[in-house]
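Dear colleague,

Following up on yesterday's call, I've attached the two folding results inline so they're easy to grep. Please treat them as preliminary; we haven't cross-checked anything against experimental data yet. The first protein's sequence and structure tokens come first.
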Amino acid sequence: MKIYYKKKFWAGVGALLLGLALPGTCLFVGWERYDLKDAVLTVLMVLGGASAILRSLDRETARQDRDADRDERDRYNRCRGRALTFRVLFWLNFIMLAGCFIGWWKSGEQEVYIQTALPCMVLFIVGWVTRIVSDLYYECKG
């Protein structure tokens, strides 16, 4: 048995293991909290993982999956979507940070707003550093 698309194979193994993790933990903890949602999620994860594993073991479907992953239009759309997501989250984080500072300035309650502003500030700084590093990386690479 040969694995033709290893990336898809290991993703399928991961999905299969995640699908089996919930019933596996219920064996030790108890089945009281295992309900219909959990059963549906388990079945979907196991079937998705098994499907990915079987597709990675077949030569033709593995070739189709690899060609679909290498399609430039899909990669371009994925990159544009990620960039838009980053911009939206960056500006939402900035708005939350500005709201924390305005609330702190208006009310004077330092503890509440500092506890909220500190994670926003850290994420804001990490976002800027990530953007600068990625710009420098792609300038040097290309």
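Below is the second protein, in the same order (sequence, then structure):
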Amino acid sequence: MKRICVIGGANADIAATTLKPFVPNDSNPGTIRLMPGGVGRNIAHNLALLGNEVVFLTLFGGDTFGLFTADSCRKVGINISFCDNAPIGTRSCFMSINNCDGEMVGGVSDMRTSDGITPKWIASKLARIDAVDAFVADTNIPVESLAYLIDHVAPLYVDAVSSPKAPKILEALRMSRKKSFYALKCNRLEWEILREAKGIQRSYISLGADGLDVLENDVTTHFDALLCKEVVNTTGAGDALMAGIVHAGPSASLQEAATIGLRCAKVTVETSDTVNNRLKELYEQLS
């Protein structure tokens, strides 16, 4: 069992999935579900399912969605004792529209509560947390906070989250004194923004159905995606991929980390849930 600290966003996910191929500019029959989400929260949830002790640092929304999200963390064994609530009425929510084939057509995120995860706030929490084996951050937090983590914690894994938020990583590297961290996880779109970044030991570039590229020491190694029984929902696959990579640990070989990450992603896309409880079975196989 590893002890891992995750710093990032937590929100309610509203997922709308069409019954037939999505038609823009029209009302599409389908299903709508409310689930706990947020990249940081999802990674923490997946890591907990993989048997890790997870300490989560976030600000929950100051509304019923925030209460819902916090309760979801408690139920799966994530330690949220160091978390706080944002001001009353503040909302943290993500809404996605998914095509009938499970692919996301688009989404809208309202993650302003994460602006309160400042360097001062993080420092006050880390001072009370015992030693951990790894740190994970997402780019929902302010760029100054990401720079602070680059300078003060290791090994640090960073999830790019989305192409609008990926530039925070470049800015944080410029702001930091250390100017380097252990591992990045991003997708194709985010990689186009981050490919010139310096100081990242390993970069995991998710290619969706085309697999995974891993860049280390200027050498790119490709790993094919694992065959799925059925792709139900791709939302959350990247979070599971990241959790598997972190679970493998910095001492794992490139091959081992990539393989565990891809296995976690495979399990996730085969369910309608953003996080698949079957990861518990995968943990038992890995143990």
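For the second protein, one point worth flagging: The longest strand covers residues 11-18.

Best wishes,
A.L.
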